[in-house]
Design a protein that fits this description.
Number of strands: 15
Organism: Nothocercus nigrocapillus
Structural class: mainly beta
Number of helices: 1
Distance between the termini: 120 Å
Keywords: Cytoplasmic vesicle, Repeat
Subcellular location: Cytoplasmic vesicle, Secretory vesicle, Acrosome
Pfam families: MORN (PF02493)
Order of helices and strands: HEEEEEEEEEEEEEEE
Strand content: over 45%
Strand order of the largest sheet: 1-2-3-4-5-6-7-8-9-10-11-12-13-14-15
Shape: elongated
CATH class of the largest domain: Mainly Beta
Low-confidence stretches: 3-9, 12-22
Helix content: under 10%
Largest sheet: 15 strands, antiparallel
Mean pLDDT: 89
InterPro entries: MORN, MORN3
Radius of gyration: 29 Å
């Protein structure tokens, strides 16, 4: 009796339906149960490529790159102003694994902002911080605080150059009192000068020089 060959069974329809349900490549808009909305590219059912995420509860918006469901690449994060409802940028720059990572700029309330390097969502590396009182810190950061070598320039142009640790002056450094024409060079510990020397420095050009010059040793 000849061997009868039956045709291979057809692929179950649910396989085809599952493939069609997989969002990949094309742009799609998807609404979450909590009202959040994403419009952009997908891969294997994950946000991947260019896309825009809107969080309904806060009204915040992220526009930029995604990688397997997380913000990764270049993008900007904005929130609505509570009064005007206009969008204000909070961060523009590079992301990795859903956190600020690389070079970027963050805008804080009161007009303060930071531009520089980030790691794991914290200021780390080189950066410049503009404070609300007019002070500017430029230098190294670690875990969101000045750490390493840096310069702090005050609104009256006086400045400190030297070591920092955990956000405070620490180690060898120089403080230039340009308003009085003096320079203190010494060693700090947790923002307190421990020892050093004070000399006249540009006293003739200082706007409010001391009454008498410092005697030479």
């Amino acid at each position: 009796m000849p061997l009868v060959r039956f045709p291979a069974p057809a692929e179950p329809l649910w396989h085809e339906w599952d493939r069609k349900a997989q969002k990949s490549g094309l742009r799609h808009t998807v609404y979450a149960v909590n009202g959040d909305q994403y419009t952009g590219e997908w891969q294997d059912n994950l946000k991947h490529g260019k896309g825009t995420q809107l969080w309904k509860r806060t009204g915040a918006i992220y526009k930029g790159d995604w990688k397997f469901g997380k913000r990764d690449g270049y993008g900007s994060y904005s929130v609505p102003d509570p009064v005007t409802k206009e969008y204000k940028k909070v961060y523009t720059g590079w992301w990795k694994n859903d956190k600020k990572w690389g070079y970027g700029t963050t805008f804080y309330p009161g007009g303060e902002y930071y531009e520089g390097e980030w790691s794991g969502g914290q200021r780390s590396g080189w950066g410049r911080m503009y404070y609300g009182d007019g002070s500017i810190y430029e230098g190294q950061w670690l875990q969101d605080r000045p750490c390493g070598q840096g310069m702090l320039r005050l609104p009256n142009e006086n400045r400190y150059e030297g070591g920092w640790k955990e956000g405070k002056k620490h180690g060898p450094g120089k403080f230039f009192y340009l308003d009085t024409g003096q320079l203190f060079e010494g060693v700090w510990a947790a923002d307190i000068p421990k020892y050093g020397t004070m000399i006249d420095f540009g006293r003739d050009e200082a706007p409010t020089p001391t009454q008498y010059p410092i005697p030479k040793v």
